[in-house]
Amino acid sequence: MSPGGAPVLDVDALLDDPATRIVVCCGSGGVGKTTTAAALALRAAERGRHAVVITVDPARRLAQSLGLTELDNTPRRVPGTEGDGSLHAMMLDMKRTFDETVAANADAEKAAQIFDNPFYQALSSSFAGTQEYMAMEKLGQLRRSDEWDLIVVDTPPSRSALDFLDAPKRLGRFLDGRLLRFLGSPARSGPLRLIGAGLGLVTGVVARVLGAQLLRDVQSFVGAFDSVFGGFQERAEQTYRLLQAEGTAFVVVAAPEQDALREASYFVDRLSAERMPLAGLVLNRTQHVLAPDLSAARASAAAEALETAGEHPLAAAVLRLHTGRVRRRDRERRLRDRFAAEHPEVGMVEVPARPEDVHDLDALREIGRALGGSDSAG
Protein backbone atom coordinates (compact mmCIF):
# COMPACT_ATOMS: atom_id res chain seq x y z
CA MET A 1 0.00 0.00 0.00
CA SER A 2 1.08 3.61 -0.60
CA PRO A 3 1.65 5.97 2.37
CA GLY A 4 -1.91 7.27 1.99
CA GLY A 5 -3.43 3.79 2.23
CA ALA A 6 -4.18 3.51 -1.49
CA PRO A 7 -2.82 0.61 -3.54
CA VAL A 8 0.47 1.37 -5.26
CA LEU A 9 0.46 2.12 -8.98
CA ASP A 10 3.17 -0.21 -10.32
CA VAL A 11 4.34 1.90 -13.25
CA ASP A 12 7.19 -0.40 -14.25
CA ALA A 13 4.91 -3.43 -14.42
CA LEU A 14 2.54 -1.43 -16.62
CA LEU A 15 5.30 -0.29 -18.97
CA ASP A 16 7.02 -3.68 -19.10
CA ASP A 17 3.83 -5.56 -19.99
CA PRO A 18 3.92 -6.16 -23.78
CA ALA A 19 0.11 -6.20 -23.73
CA THR A 20 0.15 -2.49 -22.82
CA ARG A 21 0.06 -0.71 -26.18
CA ILE A 22 -1.39 2.72 -25.32
CA VAL A 23 -0.94 4.89 -22.21
CA VAL A 24 -3.08 8.03 -22.06
CA CYS A 25 -2.01 10.73 -19.58
CA CYS A 26 -4.95 12.90 -18.61
CA GLY A 27 -5.94 15.45 -16.00
CA SER A 28 -6.62 19.15 -15.62
CA GLY A 29 -4.32 21.82 -17.04
CA GLY A 30 -1.02 22.68 -15.38
CA VAL A 31 -0.49 19.45 -13.43
CA GLY A 32 2.47 18.13 -15.42
CA LYS A 33 0.85 15.81 -17.98
CA THR A 34 3.43 16.63 -20.65
CA THR A 35 6.40 15.93 -18.39
CA THR A 36 4.78 12.76 -17.03
CA ALA A 37 4.05 11.47 -20.54
CA ALA A 38 7.64 12.14 -21.64
CA ALA A 39 9.08 10.48 -18.53
CA LEU A 40 6.87 7.41 -18.96
CA ALA A 41 7.82 7.07 -22.62
CA LEU A 42 11.54 7.47 -21.89
CA ARG A 43 11.44 4.94 -19.04
CA ALA A 44 9.57 2.47 -21.23
CA ALA A 45 12.08 2.92 -24.07
CA GLU A 46 15.05 2.42 -21.78
CA ARG A 47 13.42 -0.73 -20.41
CA GLY A 48 13.22 -2.19 -23.92
CA ARG A 49 10.00 -0.85 -25.47
CA HIS A 50 9.78 0.85 -28.86
CA ALA A 51 7.78 3.89 -27.78
CA VAL A 52 6.39 7.08 -29.28
CA VAL A 53 5.03 9.99 -27.27
CA ILE A 54 2.45 12.44 -28.67
CA THR A 55 2.26 15.86 -27.07
CA VAL A 56 -0.34 18.54 -27.70
CA ASP A 57 1.15 21.04 -25.26
CA PRO A 58 1.48 24.42 -26.98
CA ALA A 59 4.35 25.43 -24.66
CA ARG A 60 6.62 22.96 -26.52
CA ARG A 61 8.60 22.08 -23.40
CA LEU A 62 8.78 18.47 -24.51
CA ALA A 63 11.12 19.13 -27.43
CA GLN A 64 13.62 20.87 -25.17
CA SER A 65 13.61 18.16 -22.51
CA LEU A 66 14.06 15.47 -25.16
CA GLY A 67 17.00 17.24 -26.76
CA LEU A 68 15.19 17.97 -30.04
CA THR A 69 15.33 21.32 -31.79
CA GLU A 70 11.71 21.01 -32.82
CA LEU A 71 8.72 18.72 -32.88
CA ASP A 72 6.12 18.44 -35.60
CA ASN A 73 3.43 16.07 -36.84
CA THR A 74 5.99 13.42 -37.83
CA PRO A 75 7.52 11.25 -35.06
CA ARG A 76 11.24 12.01 -34.62
CA ARG A 77 13.83 9.71 -33.06
CA VAL A 78 15.04 10.97 -29.68
CA PRO A 79 18.85 10.83 -29.41
CA GLY A 80 20.66 9.82 -26.25
CA THR A 81 18.32 7.13 -24.99
CA GLU A 82 19.86 4.10 -23.29
CA GLY A 83 19.03 0.40 -23.48
CA ASP A 84 17.65 -1.75 -26.27
CA GLY A 85 14.42 0.15 -26.89
CA SER A 86 13.79 3.31 -28.87
CA LEU A 87 11.91 6.56 -28.35
CA HIS A 88 10.22 8.82 -30.89
CA ALA A 89 8.35 12.03 -30.14
CA MET A 90 5.93 14.25 -32.03
CA MET A 91 3.91 17.43 -31.56
CA LEU A 92 0.31 17.26 -32.75
CA ASP A 93 -0.42 19.62 -35.65
CA MET A 94 -4.21 19.56 -35.66
CA LYS A 95 -4.56 21.38 -39.02
CA ARG A 96 -2.21 18.95 -40.75
CA THR A 97 -3.87 15.95 -39.10
CA PHE A 98 -7.30 17.20 -40.19
CA ASP A 99 -5.95 17.61 -43.75
CA GLU A 100 -4.51 14.07 -43.68
CA THR A 101 -7.86 12.69 -42.55
CA VAL A 102 -9.74 14.51 -45.30
CA ALA A 103 -7.22 13.29 -47.89
CA ALA A 104 -7.65 9.71 -46.67
CA ASN A 105 -11.44 9.88 -47.04
CA ALA A 106 -11.86 11.87 -50.27
CA ASP A 107 -10.61 11.83 -53.82
CA ALA A 108 -8.05 14.48 -54.81
CA GLU A 109 -10.58 16.84 -56.41
CA LYS A 110 -12.97 16.74 -53.47
CA ALA A 111 -10.12 17.12 -50.97
CA ALA A 112 -8.78 20.18 -52.81
CA GLN A 113 -12.26 21.72 -52.75
CA ILE A 114 -12.47 21.21 -48.98
CA PHE A 115 -8.95 22.52 -48.32
CA ASP A 116 -9.68 25.74 -50.25
CA ASN A 117 -12.89 26.44 -48.36
CA PRO A 118 -12.50 29.34 -45.86
CA PHE A 119 -14.97 27.75 -43.44
CA TYR A 120 -12.93 24.54 -43.39
CA GLN A 121 -9.72 26.51 -42.85
CA ALA A 122 -11.21 28.13 -39.75
CA LEU A 123 -12.76 24.86 -38.54
CA SER A 124 -9.53 22.89 -38.88
CA SER A 125 -7.40 25.53 -37.15
CA SER A 126 -9.35 26.92 -34.24
CA PHE A 127 -12.77 25.34 -33.71
CA ALA A 128 -13.42 24.16 -30.15
CA GLY A 129 -12.91 20.41 -29.95
CA THR A 130 -10.81 20.09 -33.11
CA GLN A 131 -7.58 19.58 -31.17
CA GLU A 132 -9.02 16.78 -29.07
CA TYR A 133 -10.64 15.14 -32.12
CA MET A 134 -7.36 15.25 -34.03
CA ALA A 135 -5.39 13.92 -31.06
CA MET A 136 -7.60 10.85 -31.21
CA GLU A 137 -7.22 10.67 -35.00
CA LYS A 138 -3.42 10.77 -34.73
CA LEU A 139 -3.51 8.11 -32.01
CA GLY A 140 -5.54 5.90 -34.34
CA GLN A 141 -3.11 6.49 -37.21
CA LEU A 142 -0.08 5.53 -35.10
CA ARG A 143 -1.80 2.45 -33.69
CA ARG A 144 -2.81 1.25 -37.16
CA SER A 145 0.75 1.68 -38.42
CA ASP A 146 1.95 -0.86 -35.80
CA GLU A 147 5.42 0.72 -35.98
CA TRP A 148 5.68 1.18 -32.20
CA ASP A 149 4.72 -1.26 -29.48
CA LEU A 150 3.84 1.54 -27.03
CA ILE A 151 2.13 4.88 -27.66
CA VAL A 152 2.06 7.46 -24.85
CA VAL A 153 -0.45 10.30 -25.30
CA ASP A 154 -0.27 13.69 -23.59
CA THR A 155 -3.86 14.97 -23.70
CA PRO A 156 -4.78 18.57 -24.61
CA PRO A 157 -4.55 21.28 -21.93
CA SER A 158 -8.33 21.65 -21.76
CA ARG A 159 -10.27 23.79 -19.32
CA SER A 160 -11.61 20.58 -17.84
CA ALA A 161 -10.19 17.09 -17.89
CA LEU A 162 -13.56 15.87 -19.14
CA ASP A 163 -13.18 17.81 -22.42
CA PHE A 164 -10.78 15.19 -23.73
CA LEU A 165 -13.54 12.58 -23.91
CA ASP A 166 -16.36 14.95 -24.82
CA ALA A 167 -14.87 17.19 -27.50
CA PRO A 168 -14.50 14.61 -30.32
CA LYS A 169 -18.17 13.70 -29.95
CA ARG A 170 -19.15 17.36 -29.84
CA LEU A 171 -17.24 18.09 -33.04
CA GLY A 172 -18.84 15.08 -34.72
CA ARG A 173 -22.31 16.23 -33.65
CA PHE A 174 -21.55 19.73 -34.94
CA LEU A 175 -20.41 18.46 -38.32
CA ASP A 176 -23.57 16.36 -38.63
CA GLY A 177 -25.83 18.79 -36.77
CA ARG A 178 -29.14 20.25 -37.89
CA LEU A 179 -27.92 23.84 -37.93
CA LEU A 180 -24.99 23.08 -40.20
CA ARG A 181 -27.19 20.95 -42.45
CA PHE A 182 -29.77 23.72 -42.57
CA LEU A 183 -27.21 26.40 -43.40
CA GLY A 184 -25.79 24.14 -46.07
CA SER A 185 -29.14 23.44 -47.71
CA PRO A 186 -29.65 25.07 -51.11
CA ALA A 187 -33.04 26.56 -51.99
CA ARG A 188 -35.33 23.89 -53.42
CA SER A 189 -37.54 24.09 -56.49
CA GLY A 190 -40.17 22.06 -58.27
CA PRO A 191 -42.88 20.37 -56.19
CA LEU A 192 -41.31 21.70 -52.99
CA ARG A 193 -41.21 25.27 -54.21
CA LEU A 194 -43.35 26.53 -51.32
CA ILE A 195 -41.00 24.94 -48.80
CA GLY A 196 -38.10 26.22 -50.86
CA ALA A 197 -39.53 29.73 -50.78
CA GLY A 198 -39.79 29.60 -47.01
CA LEU A 199 -36.28 28.22 -46.74
CA GLY A 200 -35.03 30.94 -49.05
CA LEU A 201 -36.63 33.57 -46.83
CA VAL A 202 -34.97 32.14 -43.70
CA THR A 203 -31.58 31.75 -45.33
CA GLY A 204 -31.90 35.33 -46.53
CA VAL A 205 -32.25 36.42 -42.91
CA VAL A 206 -29.31 34.19 -41.91
CA ALA A 207 -27.23 35.69 -44.70
CA ARG A 208 -27.88 39.18 -43.36
CA VAL A 209 -26.87 38.09 -39.84
CA LEU A 210 -23.84 36.00 -40.72
CA GLY A 211 -22.89 37.55 -44.01
CA ALA A 212 -23.65 36.20 -47.46
CA GLN A 213 -20.07 35.09 -48.09
CA LEU A 214 -19.89 33.06 -44.87
CA LEU A 215 -23.17 31.39 -45.69
CA ARG A 216 -21.90 30.49 -49.18
CA ASP A 217 -18.69 29.11 -47.60
CA VAL A 218 -20.72 26.95 -45.20
CA GLN A 219 -22.97 25.70 -48.01
CA SER A 220 -19.94 24.85 -50.16
CA PHE A 221 -18.24 23.11 -47.22
CA VAL A 222 -21.28 20.98 -46.34
CA GLY A 223 -21.73 19.96 -49.95
CA ALA A 224 -18.10 18.87 -50.28
CA PHE A 225 -17.76 17.36 -46.81
CA ASP A 226 -20.87 15.17 -47.02
CA SER A 227 -18.96 12.55 -48.98
CA VAL A 228 -16.21 12.17 -46.37
CA PHE A 229 -18.16 12.63 -43.14
CA GLY A 230 -18.98 8.94 -42.80
CA GLY A 231 -15.27 8.14 -42.81
CA PHE A 232 -14.67 10.66 -40.03
CA GLN A 233 -17.41 9.21 -37.87
CA GLU A 234 -16.25 5.65 -38.44
CA ARG A 235 -12.62 6.44 -37.57
CA ALA A 236 -13.64 8.37 -34.46
CA GLU A 237 -15.76 5.45 -33.29
CA GLN A 238 -12.92 2.99 -33.97
CA THR A 239 -10.49 5.06 -31.93
CA TYR A 240 -13.02 5.46 -29.12
CA ARG A 241 -13.40 1.67 -28.99
CA LEU A 242 -9.61 1.40 -29.00
CA LEU A 243 -9.53 3.50 -25.83
CA GLN A 244 -11.89 1.02 -24.18
CA ALA A 245 -9.98 -2.08 -25.27
CA GLU A 246 -7.49 -4.18 -23.38
CA GLY A 247 -4.01 -2.85 -23.99
CA THR A 248 -5.00 0.76 -23.26
CA ALA A 249 -4.28 2.28 -19.86
CA PHE A 250 -5.33 5.70 -18.60
CA VAL A 251 -3.01 7.42 -16.13
CA VAL A 252 -4.65 10.36 -14.37
CA VAL A 253 -2.15 13.07 -13.41
CA ALA A 254 -2.93 15.52 -10.61
CA ALA A 255 -1.14 18.03 -8.46
CA PRO A 256 -1.68 17.76 -4.68
CA GLU A 257 -4.18 20.63 -4.78
CA GLN A 258 -7.89 20.66 -4.08
CA ASP A 259 -9.06 21.72 -7.56
CA ALA A 260 -6.71 19.34 -9.40
CA LEU A 261 -7.73 16.37 -7.24
CA ARG A 262 -11.39 17.27 -7.67
CA GLU A 263 -10.90 17.14 -11.45
CA ALA A 264 -9.02 13.85 -11.07
CA SER A 265 -11.92 12.44 -9.07
CA TYR A 266 -14.40 13.46 -11.79
CA PHE A 267 -12.19 11.88 -14.42
CA VAL A 268 -11.86 8.60 -12.51
CA ASP A 269 -15.65 8.43 -12.26
CA ARG A 270 -16.07 9.25 -15.95
CA LEU A 271 -13.56 6.62 -17.06
CA SER A 272 -15.44 4.07 -15.01
CA ALA A 273 -18.76 5.13 -16.56
CA GLU A 274 -17.27 4.87 -20.07
CA ARG A 275 -15.71 1.47 -19.27
CA MET A 276 -12.22 2.73 -20.02
CA PRO A 277 -9.27 1.04 -18.29
CA LEU A 278 -7.74 3.14 -15.52
CA ALA A 279 -4.19 2.25 -14.45
CA GLY A 280 -4.03 4.71 -11.57
CA LEU A 281 -3.14 8.19 -10.36
CA VAL A 282 0.18 10.05 -10.51
CA LEU A 283 0.28 12.62 -7.73
CA ASN A 284 2.78 15.05 -9.16
CA ARG A 285 5.02 17.69 -7.53
CA THR A 286 4.47 16.61 -3.95
CA GLN A 287 6.33 18.42 -1.18
CA HIS A 288 9.59 16.76 -0.13
CA VAL A 289 10.88 17.35 3.41
CA LEU A 290 14.53 16.66 4.24
CA ALA A 291 13.86 16.14 7.97
CA PRO A 292 10.44 14.42 7.99
CA ASP A 293 10.56 13.62 11.71
CA LEU A 294 10.83 17.30 12.71
CA SER A 295 7.27 18.56 13.09
CA ALA A 296 6.11 22.02 12.08
CA ALA A 297 5.27 22.87 15.71
CA ARG A 298 8.74 21.96 17.00
CA ALA A 299 10.51 23.74 14.14
CA SER A 300 8.41 26.87 14.66
CA ALA A 301 9.03 26.87 18.40
CA ALA A 302 12.79 26.45 17.88
CA ALA A 303 12.85 29.29 15.34
CA GLU A 304 10.94 31.56 17.70
CA ALA A 305 13.36 30.80 20.55
CA LEU A 306 16.39 31.64 18.38
CA GLU A 307 14.75 34.85 17.15
CA THR A 308 13.86 35.91 20.71
CA ALA A 309 17.44 35.31 21.83
CA GLY A 310 18.80 37.08 18.79
CA GLU A 311 20.98 34.09 17.99
CA HIS A 312 21.72 32.13 14.82
CA PRO A 313 19.48 34.04 12.37
CA LEU A 314 20.36 31.69 9.51
CA ALA A 315 19.30 28.64 11.54
CA ALA A 316 16.07 30.39 12.49
CA ALA A 317 15.37 31.14 8.80
CA VAL A 318 15.99 27.50 7.87
CA LEU A 319 13.60 26.36 10.60
CA ARG A 320 10.93 28.77 9.34
CA LEU A 321 11.39 27.40 5.83
CA HIS A 322 11.10 23.85 7.15
CA THR A 323 7.93 24.81 9.04
CA GLY A 324 6.28 26.05 5.87
CA ARG A 325 7.27 22.95 3.93
CA VAL A 326 6.00 20.56 6.60
CA ARG A 327 2.68 22.38 6.77
CA ARG A 328 2.36 22.20 3.02
CA ARG A 329 3.27 18.49 3.05
CA ASP A 330 0.67 17.81 5.73
CA ARG A 331 -1.98 19.70 3.77
CA GLU A 332 -1.12 17.73 0.65
CA ARG A 333 -1.33 14.46 2.56
CA ARG A 334 -4.80 15.30 3.84
CA LEU A 335 -5.96 15.95 0.29
CA ARG A 336 -4.28 12.74 -0.90
CA ASP A 337 -5.85 10.67 1.85
CA ARG A 338 -9.28 12.13 1.10
CA PHE A 339 -8.94 11.12 -2.55
CA ALA A 340 -7.76 7.63 -1.53
CA ALA A 341 -10.75 7.25 0.78
CA GLU A 342 -13.15 8.22 -2.04
CA HIS A 343 -11.41 5.93 -4.56
CA PRO A 344 -9.88 3.06 -2.56
CA GLU A 345 -9.44 0.93 -5.68
CA VAL A 346 -7.26 3.46 -7.54
CA GLY A 347 -3.52 2.82 -7.42
CA MET A 348 -1.32 5.81 -6.73
CA VAL A 349 2.31 6.88 -7.03
CA GLU A 350 3.83 10.17 -5.86
CA VAL A 351 6.45 12.22 -7.70
CA PRO A 352 8.31 14.79 -5.55
CA ALA A 353 8.52 18.39 -6.72
CA ARG A 354 11.79 19.31 -8.39
CA PRO A 355 13.81 22.41 -7.48
CA GLU A 356 14.06 23.37 -11.16
CA ASP A 357 12.24 22.83 -14.46
CA VAL A 358 12.78 19.71 -16.55
CA HIS A 359 15.13 20.51 -19.43
CA ASP A 360 16.97 17.31 -20.38
CA LEU A 361 16.83 13.51 -20.46
CA ASP A 362 18.54 13.15 -17.08
CA ALA A 363 15.75 15.12 -15.41
CA LEU A 364 13.17 12.98 -17.19
CA ARG A 365 15.00 9.85 -16.01
CA GLU A 366 14.84 11.14 -12.45
CA ILE A 367 11.09 11.60 -12.75
CA GLY A 368 10.87 8.16 -14.33
CA ARG A 369 12.63 6.64 -11.32
CA ALA A 370 10.12 8.31 -9.03
CA LEU A 371 7.26 6.98 -11.17
CA GLY A 372 8.81 3.54 -10.90
CA GLY A 373 8.95 3.83 -7.12
CA SER A 374 12.73 4.19 -6.87
CA ASP A 375 12.50 7.60 -5.16
CA SER A 376 10.29 8.52 -2.27
CA ALA A 377 9.27 11.79 -0.68
CA GLY A 378 9.60 12.57 2.99
TrEMBL record:
This is ATPase. InterPro entries: ArsA/GET3_ATPase-like, ATPase_ArsA/GET3, P-loop_NTPase. Pfam families: ArsA_ATPase. It comes from the Bacteria. It comes from Thermobifida cellulosilytica TB100. One of its GO terms (molecular function) is ATP hydrolysis activity. Residues 20-285 form the ArsA/GET3 Anion-transporting ATPase-like domain.
